[in-house]
Amino acid sequence: MKNSIFILFLIFSIVTNSYSQNPKMVLVAGTGTEGYTMGNIYSKTPDEGHEHTVVLDAFYAGKFEVTFKEFDFFCKSTGFPIPSDQGFASETSNKEINKKIRDSLPVINVTWIGAIMYCNWLSKIDNLDQYYITELDTIGNFSFKGIKAENNGYRLPTEAEWEWMANGGAKKKGYAFSGSNNIYEIAWIKENSDAKTHKIGTKKANELGIYDLNGNAPEWCYDYYSKSYYASNKNKDNPKGPNNGSSRVYRGGNFNTPKQNYRITRRYKLTQSENIGPIGFRLVKNKN
Known about the structure:
Layout: H1 5-13, E1 25-28, E2 36-38, E3 52-54, E4 59-62, H2 68-78, H3 95-104, H4 112-125, E5 132-136, E6 142-147, H5 159-166, H6 183-186, E7 219-224, H7 229-232, E8 248-251, E9 267-270, E10 284-286
Antiparallel strand pairs: 1-4, 2-3, 4-10, 5-6, 7-8, 8-9
């Protein structure tokens, strides 16, 4: 991803501690030592298998997806490019009304890199230790170098964390979707969305009080994508996916995904610098 050196230095250097978005977070209890079963051996999509045990520590998760209002403030504060909502938001002749509508929608058209930059920016503002290690070279190329797993800054969920909270975590009731067996209760999908995103939190929350884990905007996860990772993964304790790859995972389906394609275990992928399609994200952070 290329941006001017000026813009990228602004992102990490000029923010102050005078502003906080104060994201609403929910404590997601860990799995306990016995863990939970991740994956889906019944799916026709082979990358959802095989089923395996995952043990997770407790973490905090955003009740809502990050909104345009929140991400736009980041962009205006730093010079980062403002993402488009064209075709996915209602439009009227009144610019003020249009802005209010946009502000309430989950942000989309965000790259994976853009999402982690936002996480680090907000962490700095909230006096948290930044989770992601990044680097800017002399010609304006931004690169991801790794994580500081012990840090308490905002970050993206791992696939294992996303699937655990989408299933309802320790409060799960065995629903087919995240919070209900009736997908129309909990999600904006192709059959009810009018091909547009909708205001966050307007459908029913899941067992943990988290909204829109299915439908509306799909959500970036931390993990590199590997088709065979589920089948070969040997690390069951807080797994973070493969060590490298060409794409990152996103989860949850979107407002234009048909009902028959919805499963909590469904996986999607895109390279980390692409924003093709309406992909957004949700904040999580360590419990420490």
